[in-house]
């Protein structure tokens, strides 16, 4: 599966190299990486606990019904921790190790897999850089297409460390199985057929975005008709050590039309979002500068 058609993104300095040469003084921190507080930043709920969903309870007939309700509540928040997920610890640790080792490689080695003008999303670099004045993340990324396997562009898949490709492939396989299971339980919570959401993800395109945050000394919703949300969040860099995240994205096929499920707008319920082709949705997503989740989703709100 090819990505939605997107315009070229601007090239910006490598953050990891910048962090190694920057002397750490406030006045020398590049202004484009300094984010001032916004009104929403002050809305902090003290002592809030991250929802925890237990897959073993979802799979147990005796506790499944109760845990499905817990899953539904967590999805309305849009962020939760999944425990007893069954993904082997070896798979997780190998992925983390090899991703970390890749970002430790010399810059010229990493640049072999850099984003290209004809493919500005995949590869090593940064995404969503559309203007010379927008704020930038204190991070470098590696973005890869994982599934279906024929969509993989191996130009962007690192050859070092030698086990990288195998580690990512195993991680992708385990995650795809896990997502398929969760979709069934999400459908059950919505009160629709267990296969309903899986139908939207036939072929399940899957991508991964591995993000590397160097130390920074001065670090100080459509198918569910709005019922499920994707919480807006921000990664906080650490003044003393690096940070690594690996986010997997599981998506409908480009040919799929997405909109509020008909079952959820029966009986007089109002559709909160427009129905749109998924390819069009992603084209708009990739052509919008990175400025929080709502800038794209709100574009389709009725």
Automatic annotation (TrEMBL):
Gene (UniProt): gb20558
Gene3D superfamilies for the chain: B-lactam Antibiotic, Isopenicillin N Synthase, Chain
Coiled-coil regions listed: none
Classification via Pfam families: 2OG-FeII_Oxy, DIOX_N
PANTHER family according to UniProt: OXOGLUTARATE/IRON-DEPENDENT DIOXYGENASE (PTHR47991)
Record domain Isopenicillin N synthase-like Fe(2+) 2OG dioxygenase: where: 211-252
SUPFAM superfamilies to which the protein is assigned, alphabetical: Clavaminate synthase-like
Protein name: Uncharacterized protein
InterPro entries the record matches: DIOX_N, IPNS-like_FE2OG_OXY, IPNS-like_sf, Plant_2OG-oxidoreductases
GO molecular function, one term: metal ion binding
Key words of the record: Iron, Metal-binding, Oxidoreductase
Lineage: Eukaryota, Viridiplantae, Streptophyta, Embryophyta, Tracheophyta
The keyword Hydrolase appears for this protein: no
Domain Non-haem dioxygenase N-terminal span(s) in chain numbering: 50-158
